Amino acid sequence: MAHGSRLVDLVQHRIEDFLTDRTAILRSISPDLAPLDAFSKRFLSGGKRFRARFCYWGWEAVSGRGGSADADLFPVVSAAAALELFHAAALVHDDIIDNSDTRRSAPSAHRLFERLHADSDWSGDAPEYGRAAAILLGDLLLGWSDELLDEGLEALPDRRAARAARIEFMRMRTEVTAGQYLDILEERAWRTRPDSEHRERAERVITYKAAKYSVEAPLAIGAAIAGASPTQLHALRAFGLPLGIAYQLRDDVLGVFGDPEVTGKPAGDDLREGKRTMLIAIARERLPAGQRSILDEVLGDPDLGRDQVRMLQQTIERCGAVDEVEALIAAHLEKATAALADAPISAGARAELEDLANAVARRAS
Question: What average pLDDT score do residues 87-104 get?
Answer without folding.
Answer: 91
